[in-house]
Amino acid sequence: MKNPYRRHWTLDPEVTFLNHGSYGACPARIQLKQQELRQEMEREPVRFMGHRTSLLDHSRARLAEFLGAPMTDLAFVPNATHGVNAAIGAQRWQPGDEVLVTDHEYNACRNALDFSAERSGAIVVVVKLPFPLTDPQQVVEAMMAKVTKRTVFCLVDHITSPTALVLPVAEIIQAMRNKGIRTLVDGAHAPGQLPLNLEELGADYYTGNLHKWVCAPKGSAFLYVRPELQEEIHPVTISHGYNAGTENRSRFLQEFDWTGTFDPTAWGSVAHVLDFMEDLVDGGWNAIMKRNHELTLSMRTMLAERFGTGLPAPDSMIGTMASLFIPSAAMKTVEKRGTSIYTELQNQWGIQIPAIPLPDDLGTVVRFSVHIYNTESEYHRLAEAIESLV
Predict the structure, then answer these.
(1) Are 79 and 219 in contact (CB under 8 A)?
(2) If you count Cβ atoms within 10 Å of the first and of the last residue's Cβ in the chain, which end, N or C, has fewer?
(3) Is 315 within 8 Å of 304 (Cβ atoms)?
(4) What span, in angstroms and rounded, lies between the C-alpha atoms of 205 and 184?
(5) Do 323 and 235 share a domain, yes or no?
């Protein structure tokens, strides 16, 4: 059956697009809205830039409602990697301090942590997460087992990039806080995939992308910072906001809202895409996330049965994206052909999906995404493609 929502996206109809998790996809109407904002900017650039604060605050207010956080605690950033860099840059680690990160952390953010640790003399402690696993508590136990008296900071994914696991961040944050350890949550995939209440969650820092599951234009992301930590944090680029007046706005917002001349229309489109998606389906965002989650679970079960590889994690650790091991027979086939799973699926079947080799010879996983425009038939096509290699 044809998906009634696909028409709102400009995705190539010849491609089975199961990779929303990498860069997202922006609806056509929001692309047009951003173009309208750009045209307004180019008609009178000085006036537009002079009034950018009201544009950003309109989006920020709507985003604050969506994320369950005060708008004064939310700064816009171009992507979650920028947010991670800013939060890490605010730390003043001493030689011998230990900072925790898991072996499932996104490479770009792990690089930011390593870079800062090398400069300060801090020690990066890598927590090896069990995978496959049967209980989210295994993650908490693995992380806390690496905590020592020298641990001062923890970087943890809300949803891991290679394995698509929803980690128990609430429990991790509380356990770290009990030890006096600051926590930065890399929530790159979480907004629009999971319901969020950042104020209740209680992370010291939380950054997330809006171009992924929220479907905002590329260059849309946010950084949440607890109020008591805002004075010590700065954007990656220091600019006019550093010494701007703060009569009506905090230094935090002054600095992050203006880091030099840039195109603010992606940020200015955030309120529009949140409203568009809310109105797209009866029941709004909650209905979208529920539908996507249920389809992810059912398709994960179907694919695992057809692959014959089993489920690597419990349902409670799955959002609207999941990873499954690729059968070893399929891997042997592509090795004999001198190609790769990704290339075979893309070139022979028109399926856009990442195939990710895991460390320690665990195997290779295929990570599929589910959004409102996807249909069951697309995942059955993926199963057929993998079976053809077996």
Answers:
(1) yes
(2) N
(3) no
(4) 5
(5) no
